[in-house]
Fold this protein.
Amino acid sequence: MTLRSTYLLLAILGAAVPYLFFLDFFGEYGVSVSDFIVALFANSAVGGFTADLLISSFVFWLYMFARRAQTKGTSPAPWIFMLLNLGIGLSCALPAYLYAQASRDAQ
């Protein structure tokens, strides 16, 4: 298995696994953004993971924009990966970005 195909597999897993938890949450509590945000900081342990994820996501966004500027627009456009990050999570967005970058590098 190539590194590129590994990134693709991890992006798929990174989408599926979090959504199993999200669907369970929404099934139990209903689709409520406010309840979801409260649950993200339900205790110090969860709050720590949430803060870590938010900081890591911000760093990823900075990296994508810096990389795009350095490569004069030949790197993947950051917007789709930002949407993946916000809609699914970093566990999908980061390997999807790396897959897209590896695909461009292979050309």
